Each structure stands twice: as structure tokens, then as C-alpha cells.
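Handoff note, outgoing to incoming analyst
You'll be picking up this chain. Sequence as last confirmed:
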Amino acid sequence: MKRALIAALVAIPVIAALAWLAWFSPWLAVTQVQVTVGPASELAGPLSADEVRTVAGVETGTPLLRVPTEEIQSRVSALPQVASASVARAWPDTIVIDVVRRQPIALVAAARGYDLVDASGAVIASVPTPGEGVPVVAASDAGLTAALDVAQGLPEDLRRKVTSIEATTRNDVTLELRDGATVMWGSADDGEMKARVLQTLFQTKARWYDVSAPGVPATSDMPRPQMSPSG
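Most recent structure output, in case you need it:
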């Protein structure tokens, strides 16, 4: 019993010292904020590590345990260019911030110019004119999700051939190509298969391509036909 009491009496100041060391000592305080920013299209605009550090607002000299990592994560994630962010402590003196950037997949007409959006429809930036490699989406509310799903699923080389994506419903997505041809895509389903079939169809020069039913694709040099109600 006496030994246990002595051990407890010894432990109390040790624990107190460790607590002070963790919460107040400059030995375990922040001396650097390490930031990694993932890649994104040039159209999305720059996002530097210094910009992230400014938004994070971590003060050097703050004990690591007192750094509010969740608040910092929330602030950084609120940046329009950021899809997600993680914040962690790296002992003894570093805060590590990893940023995943939103990837632009389409442009949507706005009051002034165009909004550059990602797959979720979140606005990354506003630009005055369309840029190459990112199609302009013209869709109704009912067709917007399908149009963005199609844009996201397009292989990069195919997306660069597309100037615009139109959709009035989720089943009648069409692509307008830079060479003036039209692709009847249908719904957003079977996107990978449709892309493969379309690449094969490109071996035949045509005014329109129909991959809405990828098992029975079609091409023609005649004027664009109307999309069937079934898509």
C-alpha cells in the first residue's frame, strides 16, 4: 500500500510535467507548416502552398496539441478550388496539410461568362470565355446531372474533341464536336463502353454518330436525326 502511494505521488508531477510539455512547451511547438497541393487543369487557376498556409492561419510557436486541426481543415476545404483537405500533426514541430483540388470537367453559362464546374456541379472559378479541353454544358435542370456525369466519364482525348454537351432530360445527352459532327450519347449509363465504341466509329467520317445503344451503334452523313424518346 505504501509503495502504491509513493508511486502515485511520484506519477502526479511526472504527468503534470508531460502535460505542460505538450500544451505549453516551445519544444513541441509549430515551427513549420508543410503543404502539398494536388494537380489540376490550368483553367482551374493557380492555388499555391502559400495561399493555403494563409487560409490555414497556423501561427508558429503554437504548441502542436493546441492547433485546431479540424477548424483548419474546414477553412481550407472552403476554398472553391479544393475538393478535400486533411490536416495532421507531425511531431515534434510540424503541421501537415494535404490538398486535393477540384478537377474541372465542364463550363456552364453564367451571368458574366462561364462557371467552371467539377463533377458535383461545384463552381471552381469563373472565366470570360470557354477554353479548349473543357466542354460547355447546356442542359435543363433534369438533364444537368446526366450531362456532368457524361463529361466526367469522357476520356481526356475524347473530351478535348467536344465543344458542348446538351441535355433536356437525363436520357438525351448529345455531344457537339470540334469538327462539326454530333454524337447522340443517350443516358449517362455505359459511358466507358460508349466511349470505346465512339473511338472506333471515328474511323468512319460522318456528320453524326449514335452510341445511345452502344451494342448497335450507327453513323450517317445525313442531317442530324431526332433523339428517340427512349434514348
